[in-house]
Amino acid sequence: MVTMAASIVFLHDRLSLFIFRIPYASLMATLLCFIGVILFSVMMTWGFNATVEQTRRSLRIQDLPWLDKVQVFFVVIAVLMSLFALFFLLVGFSATGATREEMFKHDKAKCGGRFACAFAMVWCTLLLVCWLFIITICSVLCGSYFVFDHLCHEIPVFTEEVCIDLKVFEPLLKGLSSADLHLCGGDAQQFCAFSSTARSWYIVGWVGSCLVILGLSFFLAVLSANYAHVGNASRFVVEWSYFGE
């Protein structure tokens, strides 16, 4: 019985030590970044493909040599964000609880730990600015497709007499397309079908970018706290011991 009780106490102590080493805020931020970047990359790729197909059929533009580069761009964003999230999580693990006390006992270790936190904070801030720019582009796309959907909902029946006027985009398409920007009948119906589909995907992509920004904001707050904790870990222990006496 004594051996069993000792084993239970030992397991409880080891479990408590393991729990205190887990950076829960960093894990939550990592999960938000992973979910957000997956939603963003997948949905924006689908939405972009729908927009390209809509452009090809409605505006008769076939030469799009940069199409593959844009799709690769979304893959690169997903990979880079995943790597940065794992890096921030690693910094969070190293600066949490008992792990922090073991790794940053000496002054040189503390200096290195604070440098790692500061380096991560700089990258986190830069990524946050980039994602604010990205969500701005997503907002413009969502707003544009809300306008397109509004135009489509005003058409009760798709006939050759009822058309969608896209002349406002003529300066942007000069030299790229010679198609008539009055879409009627079947062309208007195809345009509206692609607009409805692309709008839904762009909205989900916008939500994904919001999750990434939220995760990066969590990371920035956690890294700021870790920066202070790494430099003052020994002082906290001394003060706690003093008050305990």
From TrEMBL:
UniProt entry keywords in alphabetical sequence: Membrane, Transmembrane, Transmembrane helix
Highest taxon listed in the record's lineage: Eukaryota
Membrane-crossing residue ranges in chain numbering: 24-48, 72-95, 115-148, 203-225
| Biological processes, Gene Ontology terms | neuron projection development
Mind telling me which InterPro entries this protein's record contains? Myelin_PLP (IPR001614)
Cross-referenced Pfam families: Myelin_PLP
Q: Which GO terms describe its cellular component?
A: plasma membrane
User: Where does this protein have coiled-coil stretches?
Assistant: none
UniProt protein name: MARVEL domain-containing protein
Q: Which species does this protein come from? A: Heligmosomoides polygyrus
